[in-house]
Design brief:
eight-stranded mixed sheet; single chain; globular; about 350 residues; alpha/beta; 13 strands
Amino acid sequence: MRGVYSAIDLGTNNCRLLIARPTRGGFRVIDAFSRIVRLGEGVSSNNKLSDEAMDRTIEALKVCAEKIARRGVTCMRHVATEACRVAENSDEFIARVKRETGINLDVISAGEEARLAVMGCQSLIAPGNRNALVFDIGGGSTELIWVRVHPGQRTEISGWMSIPWGVVNLSESFGRPGETLPIEHYDKMVKLVVDHLQAFEDAHQVSSVVRKRKTQFLGTSGTVTTLASLHLNLPRYIREKVDGAWMKSQDIHGLSRRVATMTHDERAAQVCIGPERADLVVAGCAILEAILGMWKVPSLRVADRGIREGILRGLMQMEQPPRRARPLYHGGDRTQKKVEKNG
């Protein structure tokens, strides 16, 4: 009997689980779970995970633990990202998670997060492209990964950067939940992110490569999938329609502005946004506008896949599950250059 694999991606905003069995050339998902937990709520102001946020997250992880036990998982990797990288009390939280749910969480570095994101969505890089910019708009940070595409669709990470703004901390910096954000504040959000993106442009000269074409932008985040749902006028979120969809940059700019100028209640009433994302989607739109404004590409492809899929791919390529790792991120310069190869 083939093994059963599980992957948890615990981010600043979401807790996500996938359970899958390997198939020829891939895997089949047999169970999944996703819940908005806002683990990083307030971390930007006091550098600590709040008791309320930890309680919410542990309740979600208990659901994950029940599913993992029920499905008879034999190989697993469960990771936490930005909120746990920066919070002063993350070690206490990780210990509490182990004690109350039995789940071991590895706090991974921004570089490992970038590698897993590329592994998870690289099959959506269209043939013929020589480069790709993969980006993941998270809750507490945004990862940018510059990828070279070699013959046979082999990918090589030539550089990555994690900027310290995601939908949770950017939202908290410009308003309170339930408020309608003035368009002037939205423009300030965009400019703030653009200022951080300049370091990535300086390091990799993305603009000059984009002008030569054969460069694809690939967005993997709740912001991008939400906007794709709105663009497609879906009556509800339908992953099969969203994952792999293409959107023109000019359509994204127009839609982002329209969402940003809605009232909170108007956003909450949108089926594909809902009350849980009504506050955060504006900051996500600002980050997305900053990326597309910095680099003039005609379109981007939407990925409803990422870290969890990357974890599953990595586990299934290994004969043995990885040993529990110590946290790899200890602060310092968040702009890195390195080369990694994904098979």
